Amino acid sequence: MRLKRIHHIAVICSDYQTSKDFYVRILGLKPVREVYREERDSYKLDLEVNGQYQIELFSFPNPPARPSYPEATGLRHIAFEVDDIEEEMHVLAEHHVTVEAIRVDPLTNKKFTFFTDPDGLPIELYER
User: Fold this and answer.
1) Can you give the residue ranges of every domain in the chain?
2) What is the model's pTM?
3) CATH 3.10.180.10: does it fit domain 1-64?
4) Which end of the chain has fewer surrounding CB within 10 Å, N or C?
5) If the chain, 128 residues long, is cut into consecutive pieces of 10 residues, what is the mean pLDDT of each piece?
6) Distant-in-sequence, close-in-space partners of 18: CB < 8 Å, separation ≥ 6
7) Quick one: pLDDT at residue 70?
8) Alpha-carbon distance 113 to 108, whole Å?
9) Whole-angstrom Cα distance, residue 128 to residue 108?
10) For the chain, what is the total number of helices (H) and then of strands (E)?
């Protein structure tokens, strides 16, 4: 195999409008395309991350809950690289998003922290 990069990350939300607001207004991701698929009663919103990667935000009627803490089996979390972690934490606090205390990666000495989206999906900020 010759994988080039991650093409997209898909996230299923329980409340489409709440999650759309979170990812667009609070995290600042840019909407690329929004589609409503009537046959599935489902929205799909493609989001751009700094012109590079794409997150697909899906809604489905009554999606089942699943464990979402960072140590659960499966996809652990989404991580975003930032220049200044304290500055980004301040922005999140202005939007009443609870953020964990800053930790330091013992292997890289880089700062990181976690918060969650409206459905409890863990999101990491990692200072470059």
Assistant:
1) 1-64, 65-128
2) 0.85
3) yes
4) N
5) 80 94 97 94 94 89 74 77 96 97 94 94 92
6) 118
7) 60
8) 14
9) 10
10) 2, 8
